Amino acid sequence: MRKPLLLLSLMLVPVAGSYASADPGAEPDAEPQYQRYQRSVTPQPGTSRTVPGQSTPGQSCTVLDAPIFPNAAPSLKDLRLYQQSAGPGSSSQPGSEIPYAITLSEPAQPDADSARILNLGMHGHAIVFDLAMPARPYTEVVLELAGQNYIATATVSGSDAPGAATSTRLGEFTLFDLTAQHLSHNTTLHLQESNFANLHVELNVSAAPGASGFTATPQMVLSASVPPSREAQSLFTISAETTALTQRGKHTIATFVVPTRVPVERVSFQLSPAFKGNFSRDVQVSERPEGQPDAAAITATGTILRVHLTQAGREIRQQQLSLPATIGSNLQGPATVEVAIDNGDDAPLPITSVRLEMRQRMLCFDTTAAPSPTLFYGDSALPAPQYDYARIFTAANTTHFALLGPQQLNAAYRPRQDTRPLTERHPDTLWIALLLVISLLAMVAFRSAKQMHR
User: Which residues does residue 375 pair with via DSSP β-bridges, in sequence order?
Assistant: First the structure.
């Protein structure tokens, strides 16, 4: 009887001991040898960009491109910069860790403002009105006009108050709606950057060629909005690009396989420079995680167009070759993205390439502390760094660009030692041990029952 109990106690010891582990609250060290990938970061002399903000000498920034995202940890939390220090012989070894901050390009004024319409009426055959503008710089004004199939000339001047004795002429702009010609419409005043408190608009409207029965009245001016200034809008980086397009019925199709966690926030199109035609085509963008059925696809829609023509003595110029498409491809797995251009009964457009783009993300650091650091990543065990530099970061008046080198495997890489308890690394071991213990207990109980019976 003693031998089975002794064997049972020996078997229980490793099972109980398997729960012992290192301090669960301890964070892993951020050491370069545990990072699978590395890339050089080389500041480029003579390349800089003026950015509003407080001046910070020696600030350099490099654009984070698409190959980083699938190989780095989620949210880029494992990115680390190290200054290269001289090592034995002619080689160099990673030295001290360099603080950094990651920026995301976004408009300083993300939403459009409304412009209040004042003094709306007629002056001869022209519709006239004033716009009370927001107290910030602006480059565009979007008018909402009722009606279809018209061409209008908008003469715009700016002043500090309605009815001011002096005003500044800002130009003439052609607005149009060519629905009958299947060429969309445009009601945007494309200005140079201005900050006048008041705009005065004279709108001469006539029917488009081939249309009749159109009468211009003040009631066609419904509202006006002011988008963010062009100088404050987002910059974009290519996430993926393809030149391989196929035809499926009346649709031109571009297909991408987007790697894990790569952001996609816009789709843009490049046309052959020799193509001068006018067009307006609907576009559908669908994204489906790998392994999921087509019914699980997420879709976004938009329109690309170009109108370059002269009608009724007025020159019309409008082009839109991109559309927003935040389609969630930055999931924790690869996704298939399909871009479909509906050609209707027209010939396919001569598209040379289709691009998926993300808002520009930049990694910025102090060049005086690290002239030419190396970027390491690929260690999912690392937590996000906590730098004072990032907490108090402001973009410098002059930001120098740094060139991010090609992705390379870290020659010194070695995987971290797995410090998890045995039961977490080998969960089946616990169940096997428990089954053995139960079997042994059953044998002991069976033998004891036989002895008691005798």
Answer: 39, 81
Percent of the residues in the chain that have a pLDDT greater than 70, as a whole number: 80
Is the pLDDT score of 378 beyond 90? yes
- Provide mean pLDDT across the span 311-336: 79
Distances (CA, A) of 196 to 128, 131, 136, 190, 310: 18, 10, 9, 15, 31
The pLDDT tens digits of the residues spanning 398-423 come to 678 899 999 999 999 998 876 666 66
- Rounded CA Rg of the chain: 33
Sequence letter at residue 319: Q
Residues linked to residue 287 through DSSP beta bridges, in sequence order: 298, 337
Cα angle 418-421-422, degrees, rounded to a multiple of 5: 95
DSSP string, 149-186: SEEEEEEEEEESSTT-S--EEEEEEEEEE-GGGT--EE
State the maximum Cα–Cα separation within the chain, in Å, rounded to a whole number. Answer: 123
Which residues share a beta bridge with 188?
142
What pTM, to 2 d.p., does this model score?
0.68
Q: Locate 58 and state its tokens.
A: 């020696």
